[in-house]
Write a structure and sequence with these properties.
Layout lengths: L1 H21 L8 E5 L15 H10 L4 E3 L5 E3 L2 E6 L5 E6 L21 H10 L26 E5 L2 E5 L7 H4 L10 H7 L13 E7 L3 E6 L18 E5 L4 H9 L5 E3 L6 H4 L14 E16 L13 H10 L2 H8 L5 E2 L22 H10 L11 E6 L3 H12 L5 E6 L1 H9 L5 E7 L5 H5 L20 H10 L5 H18 L2 E14 L2 E2 L15 E2 L2
Parallel strand pairs: 1-10, 14-15
Antiparallel strand pairs: 2-3, 4-5, 5-7, 6-7, 8-9, 9-10, 11-17, 12-16, 12-17, 13-17, 18-19
């Protein structure tokens, strides 16, 4: 086996060097190419529900605002905005130099200027659950506000107003999501349900063609409104080509052969080949490839359903749940199972990069304390403790086995039950999988989004509180943080709620994930951020 492994590395290295020498030389060397192993289901931003869709949408569309450094909020199509003192009215003043991309839906095929009524139309359609699953993000919209269209109004061509029925401090962060991009009514009506395959936006690239299962081709938008600091037109690239190879090894080989400019994600980068055991890029690749990594606003965890009558009574026992937390060696999981990609989750549920992270002491690996807690729970050395089932998705089976061994060392017998990811999600939501492995990716960069998983009014299956944790004190603090305008006070409230979750142990935080990519050194200025966004506006590709 070791011999085959080194032959494999040598073969990949030879292919990679050969690919770089011939430089792939296809139709245009100034095109960014990447592979998408998942499915792009739609190019309608109303369907921007997964990273595959979002990455493509980010090249095609713009919204009112955009993310700056450290989750700051920058102008985009809105050049400025005001929020009323009561927090109920958001008024955006739009640029007058933004146009939709050229398309046959416009007179003469020439894209027209974006106006405020376009945002009224774009946002209103998100309230229709048949069109978008963003409806829950708009629960605070005052759809019955007088003289508005479902809570949105445009008193003139350059002013767009949003009316809320109650204050919601993270609302601007929600508007950063690609759902809230502007689209032209003419195109949506012309293409109907096929708009997602015939997108028209304002972004740096426009849609050229989509060969299902083969390639999605985007071309540079020559009329794009944003410029760089020197006044040069953006983007610098001539286009983007997205391929759809489903096999991880094949995708990685194509990258090594110089046919893709980037691979992203722990599985796509083939860590066994590309990384050292310490998680660094192997030196034999360093001349041609560089690695990007940054904390991701994502927490992987184990969850307990804590209130259902169908749940084994042992999981209702707080001391047993704390035992499990202390018995798991998170550092070993990150080191040996993830090639040091990720951060052991020992500081609460909220991940790094968010301002309120790091102020809560979570659970470290302490088998002696775990054994003592199990004894206090009435199960010394695990005596009398029935076996517990952990429901985990089939791709995570090795992780389940590692957790099984760690819990066995303190006397807890664990059965690892594997399910397909979709079945596991449904089972957790419906209370069938009462001890489960899940992850939460922040929809927007605010600690509230992670704490919303524990709000008692959001019980699954109708909501996202899969554990059915409930606490009047938590709910009260959570509801107050939604209307608190002060960022510093809100961060204090988030910390207090995060500590409540750690103390009640409805979850076992495992690790905070990382964004990790391998990028060809021909690619310059590719940003990487904790949202794992793909921004190609400033990217240059050298010959």
């Amino acid at each position: 086996m070791p011999g085959k492994y080194y032959i494999y590395i040598g073969t990949l290295l030879a292919l990679f060097i050969a690919g770089c020498k011939r430089n792939s030389g296809n139709e245009d060397s100034n095109v960014f190419r990447y592979n998408e192993m998942g499915d792009i289901t739609s190019l309608d931003p109303a369907q921007a529900k997964n990273f595959e869709n979002i990455w493509a949408d980010n090249q095609l569309y713009n919204g009112l605002i955009q993310t700056g450094d450290s989750f700051s909020i920058k102008p985009c199509i809105a050049k400025r905005w005001e929020i009323s003192k009561d927090g109920l009215t958001y008024t955006f003043h739009l640029r007058n130099d933004v146009s939709f991309q050229d398309n046959v839906v416009f007179p003469g095929g020439k894209g027209r200027k974006v106006m405020a009524h376009d945002f009224v139309f774009s946002f209103s359609r998100l309230l229709n659950p048949e069109i978008s699953d963003a409806t829950s993000l708009l629960e605070k919209i005052d759809v019955s506000y007088p003289a508005s269209q479902q809570g949105f109004s445009a008193p003139d061509d350059s002013t767009f107003i949003i009316h809320l029925k109650s204050p919601f401090s993270p609302f601007l962060h929600i508007l950063l999501m690609k759902y809230f991009s502007v689209v032209p009514e003419e195109a949506v009506k012309h293409y109907g349900w096929d708009f997602g395959e015939n997108p028209v936006g304002t972004g740096p690239f426009f849609f050229k063609r989509w060969e299902t299962g083969n390639a999605l081709v985007l071309k540079r938008n020559p009329a794009y409104f944003e410029k760089d600091s020197a006044g040069n037109n953006l983007p610098y690239l001539n286009g983007v080509i997205i391929s759809f190879l489903k096999d991880e090894q094949t995708s990685f080989l194509e990258f090594m052969d110089g046919h893709f400019d980037m691979v992203s994600g722990i599985n796509a980068i083939n860590p066994r080949v590309a990384l050292t055991p310490a998680g660094q890029l192997r030196k034999e690749f360093a001349d041609k490839v560089y690695i990007q990594r940054t904390p991701f606003i994502k927490t992987d965890y184990l969850g307990f359903i804590v209130d259902s009558k169908n749940v084994p009574s042992v999981l209702q026992n707080l001391l047993v749940r704390k035992t499990i937390n202390y018995a798991i060696n998170r550092e070993d999981i990150v080191r040996y199972m993830r090639y040091n990609t990720g951060i052991p989750a020992e500081n609460g549920f909220i991940p790094p990069s968010l301002p309120c992270h790091g102020k809560v002491a979570g659970y470290d690996y302490n088998p002696a304390k775990a054994a003592d807690l199990l004894k206090q729970a009435g199960y010394p050395g695990g005596q009398g403790l029935p076996a517990i089932s952990l429901f985990i998705s089939s791709p995570d089976y090795a992780l389940g086995e590692a957790i099984q061994a760690q819990l066995q060392s303190v006397g807890i017998k664990l059965k690892v039950e594997t399910e397909q990811p979709a079945i596991l999600t449904e089972g957790a939501a419906n209370g069938i999988c009462y001890f489960f492995k899940k992850s939460w990716v922040g929809d927007y960069p605010d600690g509230e989004n992670f704490l919303s998983l524990f709000y008692s009014k959001s019980f699954s299956p109708g909501g996202i509180n899969y554990t059915h944790y409930t606490s009047p004190a938590f709910d009260s603090l959570y509801e107050h943080c939604l209307i608190e305008h002060s960022d510093s006070l809100r961060a204090m409230e988030y910390t207090a709620m995060d500590k409540m979750i750690i103390d009640a142990a409805p979850v076992v935080p495992l690790y905070y994930d990382e964004v990790i990519r391998l990028v060809n050194k021909r690619i310059k200025n590719l940003p990487v951020d904790p949202l794992n966004s793909l921004d190609l506006r400033y990217v240059r590709k050298t010959p």
